[in-house]
């Protein structure tokens, strides 16, 4: 009996040694559960001064200008709201002016209809049927009012103080072609913000010091004038800044229709043909009286010219690098 008990104790002891050798004396396990990887989203909302937010394709037009005269100004305030999520990089927002098209607007009473043939003005019969109003394409004769005809094709612009006729040269019978109007619309852009959602003021209450002009100098093709024209901004990406998630910025876009001075055309003529005895220079310096009322007669050349364009606001996660 003693031998049996000793044998059983020996078997248990060996079994215990074998089992105990499979585990460490001390152990601790921590488990990270419910891990996930999820992407964020960029979501840009555009709103007007009323605070109504829009998404494509329902974003309205902001510039609606009819019957503009020289020195006309138009300002719009546009609110951009980043409703997306993300924290690695605050996304950048850009303005892209594109799809600019120019056209002639049918005057109520057309003085003459002209075509441009080898650079010369040719008066033609009015096309049939004659539309009463609306846009006229470049494939048709151009309807012009009397002052526009004189400015584009040349002729008598009026009388000087002595009653003598003032004859001006034409600046080009198809002056509106190639979107000349966009070359005479100045553009200025400034931005305020970003402001966190809920504390964002309206455009009327944004402190003056918060507005910062957007540097457009790299788009300026004529740095001497120091003014940015609409045609210089077309098809360019204009960086407006960064908008953190759940933040907004105000964008103020101001446009101005300039009054074209004859001196501007003198400069253009000098660049095109430096000979002072050829071209417009002699006309400007000698034949046209030095009266203020004749200083801006070339402005008549853009009467009843129109242009349409799109403004796309683009929110990008990384900064756009211009080519």
Structural notes for this entry:
With 323 residues, this protein is α+β, with helices and mostly antiparallel strands. It has one domain (44-316). 15% of the residues lie in helices and 30% in strands. It has five helices and 15 strands. It has helices at residues 2-20, 146-153, 230-233, 262-272, 280-287; strands at 44-47, 53-54, 73-82, 92-105, 112-117, 120-124, 135-136, 142-144, 155-159, 165-168, 185-196, 212-213, 237-242, 247-257, 305-316. A six-stranded antiparallel β-sheet has the order 2-1-3-14-11-12, with no helix packed on it. A hairpin with a 2-residue loop joins strand 5 (112-117) and strand 6. The model is unreliable at 278-283 (pLDDT under 50).
What is the topological layout?
Blueprint: H1 2-20, E1 44-47, E2 53-54, E3 73-82, E4 92-105, E5 112-117, E6 120-124, E7 135-136, E8 142-144, H2 146-153, E9 155-159, E10 165-168, E11 185-196, E12 212-213, H3 230-233, E13 237-242, E14 247-257, H4 262-272, H5 280-287, E15 305-316
Antiparallel strand pairs: 1-2, 1-3, 3-14, 4-7, 4-13, 4-15, 5-6, 5-8, 9-10, 11-12, 11-14
């Amino acid at each position: 009996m003693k031998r049996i008990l000793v044998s059983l104790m020996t078997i248990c002891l060996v079994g215990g040694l074998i089992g105990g050798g499979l585990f460490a004396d001390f152990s601790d396990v921590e488990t990270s559960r419910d891990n996930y990887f999820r992407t964020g989203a960029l979501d840009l909302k555009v709103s007007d001064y009323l605070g109504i937010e829009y998404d494509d394709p329902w974003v309205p037009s902001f510039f609606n200008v009819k019957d503009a005269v020289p020195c006309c100004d138009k300002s719009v305030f546009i609110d951009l709201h980043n409703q997306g999520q993300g924290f690695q990089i605050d996304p950048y927002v850009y303005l892209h002016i594109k799809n600019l098209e120019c056209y002639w607007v049918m005057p109520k009473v057309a003085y003459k209809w002209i075509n441009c043939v080898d650079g010369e003005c040719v008066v033609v019969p009015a096309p049939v049927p004659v539309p009463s109003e609306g846009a006229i394409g470049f494939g048709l004769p151009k309807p012009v009012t009397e002052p526009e005809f004189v400015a584009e094709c040349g002729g008598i612009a009026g009388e000087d103080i002595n009653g003598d006729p003032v004859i001006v040269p034409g600046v080009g019978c198809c002056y509106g072609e190639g979107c000349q109007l966009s070359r005479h619309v100045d553009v200025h852009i400034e931005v305020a913000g970003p402001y966190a959602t809920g504390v964002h003021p309206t455009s009327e209450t944004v402190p003056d010091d918060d507005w910062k002009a957007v540097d457009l100098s790299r788009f300026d093709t004529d740095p001497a004038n120091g003014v940015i024209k609409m045609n210089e901004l077309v098809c360019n990406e204009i960086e407006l800044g960064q908008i953190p998630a759940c933040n907004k910025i105000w964008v103020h876009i101001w446009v101005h229709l300039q009054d074209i001075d004859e001196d501007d055309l003198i400069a253009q003529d000098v660049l095109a043909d430096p000979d002072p005895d050829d071209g417009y220079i002699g006309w400007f310096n000698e034949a046209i009286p030095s009266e203020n009322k004749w200083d801006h007669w070339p402005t008549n050349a853009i009467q009843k010219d129109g242009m349409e364009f799109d403004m796309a606001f683009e929110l990008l996660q990384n900064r756009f690098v211009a080519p």
